[in-house]
Every structure is written in C-alpha cells, then in structure tokens.
Amino acid sequence: MISADLRFYLYLAIQRLPLMIPIAAVVSGIGLMIVLSIPPVYRASGTILVESPQVATNSTRSGEAVGALARFHIIHQELLTQDALANLAERHELYDDAAKITPAAIAEDLRGRIDLNPVLFGDNIDALGFSVSFEADEPELAAEVANDLIATILQRDLSSRTERVGARLSFFEEEVARTAQALASIEVQLQNHKTRNLQSMPDTLNFRRSMQVNIRDRLLLLDREKTSLESRRAGYIELYRRTGNVPDESMQTPEQLRLAELNAALRSQRMIFTEDSPAIMGLLTQIATVEAQISPEQGNSGSNANGSSLDFQLAEISDRLDAIEAERNSLEQSDAELTASIKATPANEAALNALERDYENAQSIYNAAVARLAEASTGEQIEARLQGEKLSLMEPALPPERPVAPKRFLLALLSIGIGGAAAIAVALGLELLNERVRRPVEIERRLGIEVMTSIPYIRADSSWSALRLARWVVVPLIAIGVILL
Hints:
It is rod-shaped, with a radius of gyration of 64 Å. The protein has a 4-stranded antiparallel sheet. It contains 14 helices and 4 strands. It has helices at residues 2-37, 58-63, 68-79, 82-92, 103-113, 139-196, 205-243, 254-270, 278-293, 296-301, 303-384, 408-433, 440-447, 462-484; strands spanning 42-51, 114-121, 124-136, 390-395. The chain has 3 domains: 2-38 and 406-484, no CATH class; 42-175 and 372-395, no CATH class; 203-367, no CATH class. A hairpin with a 2-residue loop joins strand 2 and strand 3 (124-136). By secondary structure, the chain is an alpha+beta fold.
C-alpha cells in the first residue's frame, strides 16, 4: 500500500513538472536578478594603537582623569552625532541627492556603515587598540572615509588631552593664588594679634609669673625696709629728745652705742610683747641705767654736732623713704599690669590657638595646591612633548580587494531554493483543490465500497508522450532565457 502511494505521488509530481519547472525557473530567475542587482559593499579598516606613557610618573597617573578606552568611547559618540555625520557626508560627497535626504536619514545610514571596536593584541589588556572601519560601494571611498575617521579620532584625542591638562593647570594656578591670598590674610591677622597682645602671650606666662613673684618679694622687702627706717627715724627723734644725742658711729661712745642697741631691741620687742611684760621691763631698766651713765657734758658737748647729725640722718632717711615709695609705686603698677596680662592670657591663648589652627589649615591647603600644581605642570609638559598615554595610528585603512557583501553564491542558492519551494507549493495547492477520483482507494474512502479490481489507463500514442517531455524541457529553458535576458 505504501509503495502504491509512493508511485502515485511520483506520478503526480511527474504530471505537474510542466507547471512546476516554469514556476521554479521564474522565481529563481527573479531571485538571481535581484542578487545580481545588489551593489557590492566594500569595507576598509584601520587600526589605532593605545600607546603607554613614556614617562610613567605619579603626576601623569593622577592627572589622567579619563582613560584611553573611555576617551575613545566619548570620541566615538561625538563622531556619531547627526551634525558630525552630516559634515562627513558633505566632505566626501557620499550621497548624490543629499539635498533630498534629511540629516536624520543620513545619520542613521552612516551609523550602520561605521564600526569602531576595541581590539586586544594577544589577549593582553595592556596591549589595547581600536579598529575603525567604514563600508561603501567603492573600495577607494571606503578607505578614504575610514582614514578620515581615524584622523579625526587622533586629532580629537590630542585636543582633549591638551585641553584637559591645560584646564587642570589653570585651575590649580588659580587655586594656588587663592590659597596664598587666604594664607597671607591669616598671617596678617596672626601678626596683628601678637602685636596687640605682646605682653599677654602664653609663651611668656611663666616668665611674667616669676616676675610677679619677684616684684611681690621686692615689695615685701621694701615694706620691711620702710618699717625699719620709720622705726629708726622715730628712735633717733626719741633718743635726741631724751638725751640730746644722735647715734653716730663715728662720734658715739660705747655707752651711746649700747644705748642705741638697747633702743633697737626695745622697738623690736614692743612689736611682740606688751609694755608690762618682763622682757620690756628689763630692757627699760637697762636703758635707764645706760642713760644714767652717759654724762651730761657728753650730751651737751655734742648737742650742736648732734643736731646737725640728726638733721642729716633724718634727711637721709626721708630720701630713702621717698625712694622706697617711688619704687613701691612703680612695682605696684608693674604688678597690676602683670596681673592684668596674666588674666588676659587665657583668652588671648584661645584666640591665638584659633588663628594658628586656621593658619595651619590654610598652610596645608596651600601646600596641597602647590603639590597638585607641580603635578599638573609636569603632566602639561609630558603632554606637550607627547610622552603621555596617547592614541597613535598603527595601520591606515587600505582599499579592500574584495567586497564583504553581498554573498552572491549563497543568495543564488537561496533563490533557487525559494523557486523550488514555490513550485512545490503551487503543485500541492492544485492537488488539494483537485477533487477527482483517480485511485480505487479514493472510491473506497468516499463511497464505502470495496473495489474488486481496477483497469489502468493505457496511452496508445507514444508521440504524445515525447511531445510532452519536450514541452517540459524546452518551455522552462525558454522562460529562464527570457528572464536572464
């Protein structure tokens, strides 16, 4: 049963050949014409190399704000803008009727024809390059446009690096000038503060405290000396009132010297004991005894001399007391000034510390700006001498010898396949639409009866078969010839 079906379908295919062959020939011919009419596409490619910096310093690395790959992508996007592509098409006259084509359509077409891709040499990330290619219908035009794109990329990379280092250098020059001005202003404030508060600076606090201690010790000594001089003056006056004599070491007798010593001891004891104490009473008795031993002649003979001596000694004591008072006033004024300066020292120290902190911060900012300026200057010199990381031409684009598209052989095979598929589809469609009964099995399926036997159709005229075979062969050949012509 299966072999009978196969023979039947083979018979049907042979029967449909006169129709299938022309259809396949026509469709395949049309496909071949379309393939032959497609213009060739040539692709020219050039290579850009990313050169490592010849001078590898910290300044160049810190100044490299944008890497080569990032710069390339930025330039890539700039090249694919609508204005840039319109200028490219105008420079190379890529479109004959450019006036009738919108800039958006030109940009869309050129974006599909331009290809920029990174390239790794030997799978090494440090050996990096970029491939720039362009597709055109002429090999010379493809190479010309690709080289134009390469030249534009190299020029923009050089301009971007130069502008970047120049802008960085200008920025840090302004920053150094600004921080230097701020530092100078704080220096002036610090100097003025030290000048205004020269006597109350914290670094002289210990010295001023020691001076104050010395001044106060000196005041105590002056007070003691003043008290001693006043007591001495009172003793002289009292002694002269009682005896008419004045203690003078050059003219006094031993009794007079003894009397002066006892009077001095009495004055000192009176500062400690009361008048009715045994010590005071004993000294008074001794003084009375010594006074009795001094003869009146000694007192009278020296009365005149003693009077002048008393006046001289009292004047000397007064001069010394005046000098002590003047020195005391000066020391008290100095002590008051020291006290005021010591009290003002903490506030001045706080203000000084704040100014010094501001100065240190400004100094550190200034030093950092100067260091960055030096780095920027070094980077600018490196870029000026083309010794930094840069893009360079490794291989220019050359006119290609063969087109990259279309693949005519594959397209021709595809056209023939489509023609055969179209012919088979038409044959199947006609068979599906044919409702005639041509086999016993179809009678059994439709009528539900069993066919006992069937007589096959026998063609008696063999010339008719030869004519049909000639038609199957000649007609398709004529159709193919007409299509090709």
